[in-house]
Write a structure and sequence with these properties.
2 domains; alpha/beta; Rossmann fold; two-stranded antiparallel sheet; Helicase, Ruva Protein, domain 3; seven-stranded mixed β-sheet
């Protein structure tokens, strides 16, 4: 386990609370990324109708196959495999892919997610303008979801014991006007040039000076890290030609 960098949640009370936070019903279909030895999987299977468990480790996947009647195993990389339809996500996410898997999950429909992250990652996820931890992650998640840290989880809850503490985060999707993938791409471009003023960052992303004329000067004089998630979405809607076409077609 140490060689592979795997750490397994063994604290039964933490596991039970994670499942409680998801408010599961028998009609729910739940996605679990990285079930590992199945400690969380077992409780999920007891509380809901269907669990889809995605595990990259062949030995672990095989050990879980058939153990629970309502658990469907998907063996493969959660960043690459075709994901099924589900209502909720409850997972101890592999920390080394936290960013990539979070962005992938946010592009897909779901009702609620209860996710375990490294403590610092969770803090960056909840950061806002003016916070030194605010960046691409905080802007994207802040626009797409209501977010909250439910509890801090000490490293003693895991075996082998990791070098970091963790946090349980709950995400609930918002009803937003901008497509998630489009917004993520826009934010990524902004934060590649986070020290520049927004005007120069946008020009560097290929937007024309003419397209920026309809934006308030105060917004263009800010740096990307000073923009709220909603303000960033407003900028994208104001200057993206696709937004203009969609607006004109509805008039």
């Amino acid at each position: 386990m140490r060689r592979k960098g795997q750490h397994f949640l063994i604290d039964c009370k933490v596991i039970s609370r994670m499942v409680d936070y998801a408010d599961l019903r028998s009609s729910d279909s739940v996605l679990e990324i990285g079930p590992g030895t199945g400690n969380l999987t077992r409780v999920l299977a007891q509380r809901t109708g269907c669990v889809w468990a995605v595990e990259i480790d062949p030995a672990l996947a095989e050990s879980l196959r058939g153990r629970f009647g309502n658990v469907e195993m998907i063996r493969g990389d959660a960043l690459k495999v075709e994901l099924p339809d589900y209502d909720k996500i409850v997972s101890n996410l592999p920390y080394q892919i936290s960013s990539q898997i979070t962005y992938r999950l946010l592009k897909r429909p779901f009702d609620l997610a209860v996710l375990m992250y490294q403590k610092e990652f969770a803090q960056r996820m909840l950061a806002g303008p003016g916070d030194e931890m605010y960046g691409r992650l905080g802007m994207v998640v802040g626009y797409l979801c209501y977010r909250e840290i439910l509890e801090w989880v000490p490293r003693s809850a895991w075996r082998p014991v990791p070098k970091v503490d963790s946090a349980i985060v709950r995400l609930q999707p918002k009803d937003v006007d901008v497509d998630a993938g489009r917004f993520m791409g826009f934010v990524e471009g902004l934060f590649r040039q986070r020290r520049k003023k927004t005007r120069n960052a946008l020009l560097g992303m290929g937007f024309s000076s003419k397209a920026l004329q309809q934006l308030e000067a105060s917004l263009l004089d800010c740096r990307p890290e000073e923009l709220s998630p909603e303000t960033a979405a407003h900028i994208l809607q104001s200057i993206d030609p696709r937004s203009e076409r969609e607006t004109s077609s509805t008039q």
